[in-house]
Design goal:
Radius of gyration: 36 Å
Distance between the termini: 83 Å
Strand content: 5-15%
Helix content: 25-40%
Shape: globular
Number of helices: 17
Structural class: alpha/beta
Length: 560
């Protein structure tokens, strides 16, 4: 009895890549020829054959009525194939396809059997390569010719624009009656699979994707996926850190946030295997002591960015070693590192000439001596934050040496005088961002000096400063480039100052007026109407915007 034949659709040519066949033969009976390549039986991670066998078994059962001979009955093994459009029609004798009728050939290694349209025998389904696009296409007509008996004329492919003796090339045609060739995910190049896997999180890569099969395991551990690590699991242990960091010896970025179970020895051992590391962030890990930081400079000499904010265990000795070995350091953030003092900052200034970003917040041990050393040696600094440090008016007088300074934060420095701030900042022509919040000594005369000198100033923060309408008018007259201004909690600002500033600053996009109690609601409503391009921020306006956003998102508000 003749066996039931598969449809001549290219979709059914699964035995060219997978061990499942339409005929009930064991894997050992699969012909080992060029026309029937198969995968190894153990080409799967943790299984005897590919887990995607289930989806192909379904395809074969629907087309041929016969199941997979490999006996894969695991209903959880599911793969989704990727379809690449390709339409193929029957071709004639003149298409130079190596096909032979079963009556005239002794070739026994058939790919599929097919009812011949001319001789009514089972003829071989073979593949031919297009002479133009170089792709392989299956054809079903035997040497006797096609159904019509007419010669197939070359035609131009609607997709690739080349002439093919085939009625449509591998890239596809507009004929919807021809099915697409199915390309499995595992047949994609490793770089393409890695690019797809780059959209997965670390947990999805390690705990899900890498457990599917051997191919996925290798793709999930492609070194390119592990050049940047962001770790923020509070329960992470030292062993977990070592395993993840060890995947790629060329790790370039490592972010460790809120990992409170890690030890100093665990951090040190992990960093010892990262000689190419360029960016290191260790934040809010207060359990770490000096042993976690002392050898960072020796193990990671290429470091360019370091952030140890809110990590109290960083000592002066560790920072000095880092400065001595990491000459490429360009960004250093030490916010709330309570052990850092002038001694280590002076070493950083001397050894790191490429330093551009340096931030402190509430570092009580950072005094005028640190600022003086930075101004003397670190002339490339562009961003400097001294929020709530022990800086006085005498220290900021050295700021004029930082000619490239663009962003300066002098907020919450109660010992600064208005005249010293005005004089120091007036010598910084490149400044575009200035923060003077919570500085009660800042007055209108200081604002006049700043506005007249800093023509590139765009962002100015004056929350809770001692300024009046005259200071705002000075800003409007001289700082036409201002875009963002926050004057919240300035109790002496009235409708006059807010209106004048809105009229004179054509580039203004944001004006913060929270708790400016002398600015009336009527004035705010008029400004919102007259200057729609400016975002005004008051307690009432912000509350209304929040309620409107809640309504748009479907929240039901209780008006009782």
């Amino acid at each position: 009895m003749r066996k039931r034949m598969l449809s001549p659709s290219p979709t059914t040519d699964l035995t060219r890549r997978y061990p499942c066949k339409s005929t009930k033969k064991s894997h050992g009976d699969v012909p080992n020829s060029d026309t029937t390549p198969t995968r190894k039986q153990n080409d799967c991670f943790g299984s005897n054959h590919l887990k995607e066998c289930r989806i192909f078994r379904k395809v074969l059962e629907e087309v041929s009525g016969e199941g997979c001979s490999t006996g894969c009955d695991n209903e959880d093994d599911k793969f989704v194939p990727i379809s690449v459009p390709s339409n193929v029609k029957r071709n004639s004798e003149e298409s130079a396809i190596d096909q032979t009728c079963c009556n005239d050939s002794d070739n026994k290694s058939k790919v599929f059997d097919q009812d011949c349209t001319k001789c009514e025998h089972d003829c071989q389904l073979t593949h031919a390569t297009s002479s133009n696009c170089g792709t392989e296409n299956p054809f079903t007509s035997c040497y006797l010719g096609s159904d019509t008996g007419e010669q197939q004329q070359p035609e131009t492919c609607s997709k690739c624009g080349t002439e093919n003796t085939f009625s449509s090339c591998y890239l596809g045609s507009d004929d919807e009656h021809h099915p697409a060739v199915t390309l499995h995910f595992n047949d994609l190049p490793i770089l393409l699979k890695s690019q797809i896997f780059s959209y997965l999180t670390m947990n999805e890569l390690l705990c899900t994707a890498s457990l599917v099969c051997k191919t996925w395991y290798e793709a999930a551990r492609e070194p390119g996926l592990w050049r940047r690590l962001h770790l923020d699991r509070p329960g992470m242990l030292d062993e977990d850190l070592w395993n993840v960091v060890g995947i790629n010896a060329n790790l370039s970025q490592l972010h460790v946030l809120d990992c409170r179970m890690l030890s100093g020895k665990g951090i040190a051992k992990a960093l010892a295997g990262c000689p190419a590391l360029k960016e290191l962030i260790i934040m809010r890990c207060n359990q770490l002591k000096a042993d976690a930081f002392c050898d960072i400079g020796e193990h990671c000499p290429l470091l360019a960015k370091i952030n140890f904010s809110n990590t109290n265990g960083v000592p002066d000795a560790a920072l000095e070693k880092i400065a001595s070995h990491c000459s490429h350091l360009s960004e250093l953030r030490l916010n709330r590192c309570s052990l850092i003092s002038d001694e280590s900052i002076t070493q950083v200034a001397r050894c790191c000439p490429k330093l551009k970003v340096l931030t402190f917040q509430e570092n009580k041990k950072v005094t005028d001596a640190s600022l003086q050393a930075l101004c003397a040696f670190s002339h490339n600094i562009e961003v400097l934050s001294l929020h709530k440090c022990s800086i006085t008016s005498q220290g900021i007088m050295h700021l004029h040496k930082l000619t490239k300074l663009r962003n300066l934060d002098l907020s919450n420095l109660s010992s600064l005088s208005s005249n010293s701030v005005g004089e120091a900042i007036s010598n910084l022509p490149q400044l575009d961002t200035l923060n003077l919040c919570l500085s009660k000594n800042i007055n209108d005369s200081c604002l006049h000096s700043i506005a007249a000198s800093c023509k590139k100033l765009k962002y100015l923060f004056l929350v809770s400063c001692n300024i009046t309408d005259e200071g705002l008018i000075s800003i409007g007259r001289h700082s036409r480039s201002i875009e963002h201004l926050d004057i919240g909690w300035c109790e002496d600002i009235t409708d006059r100052g807010a209106t004048a500033l809105s009229q004179m600053c054509s580039q203004l996009k944001y004006l913060g007026m929270v708790r400016c109690d002398q600015i009336t609601e009527g004035c705010v409503a008029r400004l919102v109407k007259e200057f729609p391009h400016i975002h005004y921020s008051t307690f009432l306006l912000d509350s209304q915007r929040l309620l409107e956003k809640a309504k748009r998102q479907g929240f039901q508000l209780n008006t009782v």
